[in-house]
Amino acid sequence: MATEEAKAVVPESVLKKRKREEQWALAKKQAADAKKKKDRENRKLIFTRAQQYAKEYESQGLGKYGIICMEDLVHEIMTVGPHFKEANNFLWPFKLKAPLGGLKKKRRHYVEGGDAGNREDYINELIRRMN
Question: Name one GO biological process term (predicted).
């Protein structure tokens, strides 16, 4: 008997407490996993609904004229195609404010230091100021 090791006796209340805590931790982990899965599905649903709305909006306005994507819209406007007026009217809701900081010398051409005329690559700066 001297060779037998004395086992530590654990009270029954401590064992019950451990079991309860393990069950609680397992339930909490399962709830967290379920929430993650639900959030992932909701996020996917939100993005698909947004894409679907955009497609419906474009098809309602320009689908009957054969303009179904941004490239078609840009092409129609740049080439002044047969449905230019419809494409241009589709963009009317996008309004721009006056440029931040105002315009300088709007009577002079852009090349001469004014604001009028062809800006070529610098048009994006003006659009950023107008948003």
Answer: maturation of LSU-rRNA from tricistronic rRNA transcript (SSU-rRNA, 5.8S rRNA, LSU-rRNA)
